[in-house]
Amino acid sequence: MGGAGRDGADELEMTRSLPRADLKSVGEVRRALRELMRHRCRPDTADAAELLITELVTNALVHTEQGAEVSASLAADRLRVEVRDYANRRPRPYVPTADDGTHGRGLVLVQALADAWGWIAPAPGGGKVVWFELAGTFEAGARLSALRRSGRPCSGSGHGARGSWRAAVRLSRTAAPGP
């Protein structure tokens, strides 16, 4: 497992194939990512990464007819997570209405917490890859901590996330589509 990162340090990697509609696998992917990050990242950064991977994996399993492929690579200077699904629909963050309950906030959270995110479509073999990166000093953990201090904690739960998507929008950074 692992290879040389951009700075020559070992890069740690994780891959998982997830069956169609198997939402129990979301927790397993989250735990695997936390283990990957355990010795290299602050706990609040791992929390942010877990929230983001939960959102992308849940979207892939709920909104597509097939399973998903998940990969994560952690180098000294960045974490990159990719979730491949087999739907050709473009991912679109939107600000949900109050009637949407907890649905529709996932990509807004990814946009707010990730240093970069985007999608690659079509992916080889069809479908698309939605990805995010946490770079450098892993500031996403600090952004997630600020979101929690806002009095409206954010935590992944099944499809979408509970918490303050408005605070996430205020904290948002510009999305960077493409690789």
Blueprint of the fold:
Elements: E1 3-4, E2 10-18, H1 24-37, H2 43-62, E3 68-75, E4 78-85, H3 106-113, E5 116-120, E6 128-135, H4 140-149, E7 155-156, E8 161-162, H5 165-170
Antiparallel strand pairs: 1-2, 2-3, 3-4, 4-6, 5-6, 7-8
Keywords for this entry:
single chain, 179 residues, alpha+beta, six-stranded antiparallel sheet, two-stranded antiparallel ribbon, 5 helices, 25% strand, disordered C terminus
Order of helices and strands: EEHHEEHEEHEEH
Count of alpha and pi helical runs: 5
Order of strands in the sheet with the most strands? 1-2-3-4-6-5
**Count the strands?**
8
Structural class estimated from helices and strands: alpha+beta
Name the shape in a single word. globular
Could you name the ranges where pLDDT drops below 50 across 5 or more consecutive residues? 4-8, 152-179
Describe the 3D structure.
The chain has 179 residues and is an alpha+beta fold. Helices cover 32% and strands 25% of the residues. It has five helices and eight strands. The strands form two sheets. A six-stranded antiparallel β-sheet has the order 1-2-3-4-6-5. A two-stranded antiparallel sheet has the order 7-8. Strand 5 and strand 6 form a beta hairpin. Helix 2 packs antiparallel against helix 3. The chain is globular and about 35 Å long.
Describe the structure in brief:
By secondary structure, this protein is an alpha+beta fold. Helix content is 32%, strand content 25%.
